[in-house]
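This week, look over our next protein:
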Amino acid sequence: MRARKRQTIIIAVLFLVVPLTLLSIFTYYPIIRGIILSFGDYNMFTKKVTWVGLSNYKEIFKNKYFYEALGNIFRYLIVVPFIQFVAILTAILVNQNLPGVKFFRTLFYVPVITGSVIVSMTWRWIYNVDGLLNSFLLSIGVIKEPVMWLTDERFALYSVMFVTFWRGIGYYMVIYLAGLQNIPTELYEAAKIDGANSRYLLTKITLPLLKPTMLFCFTISSLAALKVFEEVFLMTQGGSGTTTMMYLIYDYAFVRFKFGLSTATSVIFAGILITFTVINFKFFGPRGDKK
């Protein structure tokens, strides 16, 4: 028995060696290295780190762009409930046995598989002064002069947010569709026999059983909104009041070559991401039975 137990332990350890090694190299070491670097000033030419203590953090909290980026990512969270609401409704719609439903599923998912560069360049053309959007609004009399959608601070961030909203619906729709198709049809049939209407089926069966999927979608959607970078980088380059935390981290590291400030910002940002993940699990996660 002891020999078999020892053999089981050895096999288990061998199975853990490879993933733990990969995690140590590509996850744990970069995290520890980044935290250490956040308290130093890194010279990319000499590859030396000069200890500066909390100076990086003090400089970050004195920078107005940090607060601009912080405010923008919180405003970006406005997109999350709208995306999830529309994605759930769309998933319910395309889950019906309707003519051409497969075509509509594909149509909604096309923006997801389209490259970020193509999407951003297309929307930059749409938002252009003489682009499609201004031309359409001028033709129907909604506006009297072209709107600077990506250069006016009143509109730039929300214009970028709409692109994220438009592109994200199809992605979450597919996830919710999978969740809906995992709900046993027998539950609906039994409820209908008892005289349940569509509202009852939605609120008492569909949404409660879809809650684990909602937890997953709300969590990754919140993190994606907080970590938005591609749309901002490709459409506004962080200008017109659209700086986000990810863009600020990029700017510190690869434009100004201030790697200490970049990693310090990353550490602060990681704390924000962890906080929002905990909040999502608090509201949508499983709860114990109340006695």
Summary: The longest strand covers residues 40-43.
